[in-house]
Amino acid sequence: MTATPVLRIGTRGSPLALAQTHEVRDRLAAAWPELAAPGAIDVVVIKTTGDMVQDRPLAEIGGKGLFTKELDDSMLDGRIDLAVHSMKDVPTVLPDGIVLPCMLPREDVRDAFICLKAKSLAELPAGSVIGTASLRRGAQILHRRPDLRVVNFRGNVQTRLRKLGEGEVDATLLAMAGLKRLGLVEHATAALSTDDMLPAVAQGAIGITCRTNDPTAHRWLGALNDGVTFVRVTAERAFLAKLDGSCRTPIAALAELDGDRLEFRGLIVSPDGRTIHAARRSGTASAAEALGTDAAQELLDIAGPGFFTFKTGG
Q1: Could you tell me the residue ranges of all domains in the chain?
Q2: What is the CATH number of domain 226-314?
Q3: What sign does the dihedral 191-194-200-201 (CA atoms) show?
Q4: Does the first or last residue of the chain, that is N or C, have fewer Cβ atoms within 10 Å of its Cβ?
């Protein structure tokens, strides 16, 4: 038994965050003998602002960074060595002193439609209420089904499934990746095609951050990084960064890699779903960042600056 942990990994405390962190811990232990001994890796649970404030939409309490700031602070203070994140929660600009050198192989990128009353979004009766904390999901739903009502619906996966079962809403959407990692995929009524619901930037990807000046952490993480996921997410995050996207802006993107060929799709939607602008790009993996940036510039030129100043309401 290791008396003092060799490595401290920071994470949020939700069941999904812990499942993701345990996957990282197990992969590190399998890759490095010095991390395989009992007690060598300590998992440190840290509460973030996004976890503590559950009664308001994310857009109202600050957008991106709500699920990462306290983890970043703990890392810079030396309380943890690594932090495990759902990549879709990670701001495109990291704090000075922190880098993101590693992503695990990406899970299913699709959104799950979950409903006890209908088999698909199309079958929901007019006036049905869909609960989601995601402006992206809500805006795309309203674009296809303006006769539905979308309401703010927060909480971890288990909480949302319970609220749905209690009849608080008629349907909800969750990431297929999260359901799979939690062993709850049987709750998905249907997986939505990415043509019907383009996912969030980096949906399904787990990222691991460390201090810039920690060579040991860089060495350990180097064995875990998945190059295909890294390229795909790089394109999507470049798109988001150019748009200056946050939780206040309905933005979706997906990059898919076939050999060295990268296919990128991105879109922006008004929160009411009435206006949608989409762009596509194709190129080599080495041009991932440029493809995402260029697609975003096209949408900025088409939409104009006023598109990103809409009020989100409650």
Answers
A1: 1-104+205-225, 111-191, 226-314
A2: 3.30.160.40
A3: positive
A4: N
- Is 196 buried (19+), middle (13-18) or exposed (0-12) by CB count in 10 A? middle
How far apart are the C-alpha atoms of 186 and 180, rounded to whole Å? Answer: 9
Q: Which CATH class is domain 1-104+205-225?
A: alpha beta
Q: Model confidence over 80-102: pLDDT tens digits?
A: 999 999 999 899 999 999 999 99
The active-site residue out of 72, 81, 89, 108 is: 89
In the chain, which residues have pLDDT < 70? 1-3, 49-66, 245-248, 310-314
pLDDT tens digits along 136-195: 999 999 999 999 999 998 788 888 889 999 999 999 999 999 999 999 999 999 999 999
Burial class of residue 211 in the structure, from the number of CB atoms within 10 Å of its CB (0-12 exposed, 13-18 middle, 19+ buried) = middle
pLDDT at 310: 59
Contact 106, 232 (CB under 8 A): yes
Q: Which CA distances in Å does 252 have to 28, 61, 111, 130, 277?
A: 31, 21, 12, 19, 11
Long-range contacts of the stretch 218-221 (C-beta < 8 A, 24+): 218/101, 220/7, 220/28, 220/31, 220/32, 220/35, 221/82, 221/101, 221/102
Identify whether 244 is a catalytic site residue: no
List phi, psi (to 5°) of 61: -110, 15
